[in-house]
Amino acid sequence: MPSFPALAPGPRIGLSVLAFVLCWVSGGHVSSAQYASDIYSARAMGMGGAVRTLPTDGCAVDLNPAAMAMFSSYLVDAGYRYYGPQGAHSATLSAVDALTSRVASGFRWELGSADNLPGPEPDGWVVVGDTSRETLHYRGQSYRLGFGFPLHERVLAGATLAWYRSKIAAGDALEDTDFSSKFSLSFGSQVQLTPAVRVALVGTNLIPTRTEAYPTTVAAGVSGLAGGMALAALDLVVDFTSLRDIEGAPAITRENITVNVHVGGQALLAGHIPIRAGFYTERQNGSAYATVGTGIETPRGRIGYALRYRVRGGTGDSAFDGPLTHLFFIGAVIGK
């Protein structure tokens, strides 16, 4: 379990390689790309996504780029997810350099593929081909470049540039369909109030993408560390665009803005075994999830597992919103 490190780079040099991630989702169908919560790592999922004050892996590029400035190490991670019989897959690759200079930099790439999706086309997508057919096909890629830097001994800031490319088509028309591109920009900040307490403010996709997979959100988070052995965190996320894009509304209104709650914690047993639990909501699709996670962490390697169970709601039209999600994680740390 990470403690709160000093903001200035220290003498420790680390290279963390996440050997592989496997995820499968049971039940449901796919109607569009992933939900926003599918960028979570095993640690983030186990804590209900409440990690914006202290993301400790490559998902910091997405959840709070400012936090990369506290890593004081090199980090590389890779992941693969399989979403069940609908033929949906995604792979991610992230790299963070927070050691070479005071400005930490990170890159995150994601590839998504889904076949046998139920029609008709999801709201907000332009589909090529005969949409009366029962299945659709989706391909997507995203590229994110993030930077984190200290403004003060206890204040970090960061920004992430994102390029999203995707296409969806019916039948055999996928190869003849061009990718559509979306560009966006995110900002993050983190303040260390005391050695044990940090707060964060993050704005994600502040240039709207007009797709529910990449919503415009503003999040505030707080986390506290107890004796270096336990961590508790709370994030409140205001989602401005998901419900608008799901409903196909022409503008953002008070009625289609949602507020989601993420709460989670972690305790470290015997110095090496993290026990994680969390809860979060996705009001844009009427869902709520309970999460748990565990693993083994040593100075040289990590093994992790997280389980997500949908306790309420769900649209029932997406494999990414299945009732049960498992996520496995293996990592290795090389050097000091």
Commentary on this structure:
There is one protein chain. With 336 residues, this protein is mainly beta. The chain has one domain (15-334): Porin (Beta Barrel), CATH 2.40.160.60. Helices cover 4% and strands 52% of the residues. It has three helices and 15 strands. The chain has helices at 42-46, 60-63, 242-247; strands at 15-26, 74-82, 89-97, 104-118, 135-152, 155-170, 180-192, 197-204, 217-226, 230-239, 258-269, 273-282, 287-297, 301-312, 324-334. A 15-stranded mixed beta barrel has the order 1-2-3-4-5-6-7-8-9-10-11-12-13-14-15. A hairpin with a 6-residue loop joins strand 2 and strand 3 (89-97). The longest helix has 6 residues, at 242-247. It starts with 14 loop residues before the first strand and ends with a strand. Mean pLDDT is 77; it is low at 1-35, 121-133, 316-321 and 332-336.
Outline type: globular
CATH topology: Porin
Query: In what range is the share of β-strand residues?
Result: over 45%
Instruction: Report, as a whole number of angstroms, the end-to-end distance.
Output: 17 Å
Cα-atom Rg, whole angstroms? Answer: 19 Å
Helix coverage percent = under 10%
Summary, kept brief:
By secondary structure, the chain is mainly beta. Helices cover 4% and strands 52% of the residues.
